[in-house]
Amino acid sequence: MHVGRDLWYAARGLRRAPGFSAVALATLALGIGAATAIFSVVDAVLIKPLPFRDADRLVVVWESNAAVSRESTFAAPWNLHEWQRQARTLGAFAAIHDQHVNLAGGPNGAEQLLAERISAGLLPLLGVSPILGRAFSEDEDRPGRASVVMLSHRLWLRRFGGQAGILGQAIHLDGAAYTVLGVLPAGF
Predict the structure, then answer these.
(1) Residue 139 burial (CB < 10 Å; 0-12/13-18/19+)?
(2) 50-69 pLDDT per residue, tens
(3) In which element (H, E) is residue 149 found?
(4) Which residues pair with 173 in a beta bridge?
(5) Which residues neighbour 163 within 8 Å (Cβ) at sequence distance 6 or greater?
């Protein structure tokens, strides 16, 4: 029965000082919202595993250039090759580097996309296979080879209507022709 009396006193206090009540409720709402946002980020980044094979064994390696006081999340290709040659504790290496590109043509004209430049070893390392077509080969990883590209599932549906006939066709990124090899799974 004490709970009912406590609630009555609380309601009476809130009615007597409406300004204080509004500030207290706003502070409580902001605190709950901030805690929820922080937990959501921690849950997504630290608690839930990555959606890849052996996600607990993945590491990110980057190089820094002390001469220009710059850290980089990507490594020069020759460094990556040398690291892989000398590695004793890491099983495989793959490179990824994001960049903005312009996709030309189509009914909507040109559009800017965020693209990922990856090495041929990335998809097998993550245990990801294309849903259509094939992945990059080691031969296509070498400089001066044919320019090839894989499409994200979302871009394939949105820009190319989910047409399987896009395989082997050329698309133009930043003015250069790239042959479409495959389409990645949804969500990758």
Answers:
(1) exposed
(2) 777 777 777 777 777 777 66
(3) strand 148-151
(4) 103, 176
(5) none
